[in-house]
């Protein structure tokens, strides 16, 4: 049976920081994307819950849209956790008004 991993945004739109958690809520790692219009200029960083960069690399894309964001994140997560069932939530979670 494969792990179910949920990925959600932890930063406001325009800043690409994401959190990967197991189905039980366990924080696995964060992913920070740096998007560039230059070929091979876009980078990703996988960050442990303790704040250490444990993996990094580059990625390419055609058009930076919702589908592409989902594909890039799913590819990164499945490299870190092979065979996992990945769910990407693109919208920011709603917060209660203070």
Which SSEs are present, and which pair or pack?
Blueprint: E1 4-9, E2 16-22, E3 27-34, E4 42-47, E5 53-59, H1 66-80, E6 85-89
Parallel strand pairs: 1-6
Antiparallel strand pairs: 1-2, 2-3, 3-4, 4-5
Any descriptors?
six-stranded mixed sheet; 98 residues; alpha+beta
Account of the 3D structure:
There is one protein chain. The chain is 15% helix and 40% strand. Strand 1 (4-9) and strand 2 (16-22) form a beta hairpin. The longest helix is centred in the last third of the chain and has 15 residues, at 66-80. It has a 6-stranded mixed beta sheet with strand order 5-4-3-2-1-6, covered by helices on one side. The mean pLDDT is 88. It has one helix at residues 66-80, and strands spanning 4-9, 16-22, 27-34, 42-47, 53-59, 85-89. It has one domain. The chain contains 1 helix and 6 strands; from the N terminus they run βββββαβ. With 98 residues, the chain is of the alpha+beta class.
